[in-house]
TrEMBL record:
Region described as Disordered: 18-44
Alphabetically ordered keywords of this record: Disulfide bond, Laminin EGF-like domain
Gene3D superfamilies: Galactose-binding domain-like (2.60.120.260)
Name of the protein described by the UniProt record: Laminin subunit alpha-1
Length: 72
């Protein structure tokens, strides 16, 4: 049983959902460093517009920390 595609501003996504979708299919910035390998942060697709060509993710860390890895 496959997931039905969703439409956001005329763009089709059959993998994830935006902020109003099911929590299990969202990829907000909080998932970038939550320690759960089953979640991740995903920036908006370039198909959503030129404004998403450059995306910044700013992390305010309370202490000195070394990320274990980054995947781009």
């Amino acid at each position: 049983m496959g997931l039905a595609p969703i439409y956001w501003r005329g763009i089709v996504c059959d993998v994830c959902e935006g902020p109003d979708g099911s929590p299990s299919r969202r990829h907000p910035p909080a998932h970038a460093n939550d320690g759960d390998p089953g979640t991740w942060w995903q920036s908006p697709s370039l198909a959503a517009g030129e404004q998403f060509q450059h995306v910044e993710l700013v992390a305010a860390l309370p202490d000195v920390s070394r990320p274990s890895y980054f995947r781009i």
